[in-house]
Amino acid sequence: MQDLGIRSTDPGARKLWTDKEVAEFLNVSVASVRRWRLTNFGPPYYRVGANIRYDPRLCDQWLKSRQSGEAK
Fold it and tell me: Whole-model pTM?
């Protein structure tokens, strides 16, 4: 098996988020996150078996892409 160099104690390792963690990050309900996924609206996700996981960096990029108006 190939060693990818990712260890849980590695500070550079990515932790993927659950629906609940994405909802907390966006300050919305878990139901909203799930509905968005079903309608292809929300942040990109990975399906790992029966589980859904989100890359925090992609969630942040998605949120920034939703910005409207100008900061003053």
Answer: 0.77
